[in-house]
Each structure stands twice: as C-alpha cells, then as structure tokens.
Amino acid sequence: MPLPDPHLFDAKAADWDSPVHVERAIAIARSIRSAVPVTGATRVIEVGAGTGLLGRALAPHVGSVLITDPSTGMLRAADEALTANGIANARTRRFDLEADPVPGERFDLAVSLMALHHVLDTDAALARLAAMLEPGGWLAVADLDAEDGSFHVDPEERAIVLPGHDRDQLGARAVAAGFVDVTFSDVWQIPKNDRVYQVFLLVARRP
Ligand SMILES: C[S@@+](CC[C@H](N)C(=O)[O-])C[C@H]1O[C@@H](n2cnc3c(N)ncnc32)[C@H](O)[C@@H]1O
Predict the structure, then answer these.
(1) Which of 23, 44, 72, 114 to mutate to test the pocket of ligand 1 (most atoms within 8 A of CB)?
(2) For a tag on the chain, would you pick the N or C end, based on fewer CB atoms within 10 A?
C-alpha cells in the first residue's frame, strides 16, 4: 500500500516550538481559562494542534487533553514534548478535521489555535466540532481575523488556506452549526510582512 504524502507541516515540526509560538499558546490558554469554566474533570480535545502547545498549556488545569493533528511529524514532536515535560494527562491522535471520522468519545471543551483557516469547509468543521462535544460543552477557537491573503507567504500554502475569518460571518456560521452564546475577543497579534495580523478568540457553547 502506498504511504500517504508527507503533510505540509511535517517539515515544520522540529522547529515549531519557538519562543513566540510557546508564548502565544500560553497567552491563549490563559484567555480560554478566563472565558470557559474549566475544572480538574474537564475533557479537552485540541484540533490542528501541531505540537500541542495549547493543549500542553491547558493540561495542568484540566482533567485530560487529546492532542490531534493530521501531521504525523507534528504529533511525533508532541509525543516527545509530553514525555520530556512529564505531562501524564495528555495523549495524541492523528485526526484531520476535514477528512477523518469524528472520534467516538465526547469532550467538554474543544480548542484550536491558528488552525481553523487551514480547513477550507468552515461549516463542516464547525458541525464536526459540535458533534465532538457533550451537551453543555464549550468551543474555544483562536484564529486569524480576515486578512488580505498576505499572511501566508509560501504560494503552496497560500493556495490551501482561507484568508482568516470575518467575525460576523464566523459567528453566524457557529450559530448555524448549533452553538449558542458566541463571543469574540482580541487575544494576540502577529507582526509579519511589515504589518500586524490580529488573532481572535471565539468562545461558544453547545446547548
Ligand atoms: C499554523 S499551525 C498551528 C499549530 C498549533 N495549533 C499552534 O498554534 O502552535 C496549523 C496546524 O493546522 C493543522 N491542520 C491543517 N489542516 C488541518 C485539517 N484539515 N484538520 C486539522 N488540522 C489541520 C496543521 O497540520 C498544523 O499543525
């Protein structure tokens, strides 16, 4: 059987945990904890997790974390980091939000950081995130605000991403996917290409 093509992010895994990526994930984990009532029993899934920086930052404050990503290179780096940091309540699983069946287990909180714009069918992604949550569960997605398409410099990557998300449109899509109490806040800024790109945090609840 032919091996699957390497994922675009496999090659980025070894250098992903840069100081700025670590700092970003810690800041957004803090914003999520301010917005969502997490406890030592909360079951978290992180989608598009890369090396699981966000999940790792949340792990000490929740019951368990499932770190998922389609890139096996990223997941290998995540596994190494979990071992190196002695994080016992997190595990990894390969999962593509567009292509793979939704995991059989249910979660209290689904989180994501800088990954939603990598999924072209936003409506399907939101519906699948809702399907992973228990009734009363929370969604917390941090992603790029709508931009002019300049954020991704690599043409190969630019062709397979969305130019961020308009908050009003994304909020309406979250409601259409079954979420309620949708809020947005400013959580991070990315200086790049001689400009600054804004990152939002969408928080919503599955009734
Ligand atoms: C910009 S990186 C962000 C990684 C990590 N969340 C962070 O902030 O450090 C985007 C991630 O989205 C993942 N991704 C791309 N397409 C995806 C899909 N269809 N479903 C889930 N994740 C996807 C990539 O593999 C990559 O790890």
Answers:
(1) 114
(2) N
CATH architecture of 17-205: 3-Layer(aba) Sandwich (3.40)
61 secondary structure, DSSP code? G
Give residues (CB < 6 A) around ligand 1.
7, 9, 21, 25, 47-50, 53-54, 69-71, 74, 96-98, 113-115, 118-119
- In this predicted model, what pLDDT tens digit does every residue of 34-76 receive, in sequence order? 999 999 999 999 999 999 999 999 999 999 999 999 999 999 9
pTM confidence score = 0.96
- Helices and strands per DSSP (H, E), number in the chain: 6, 7
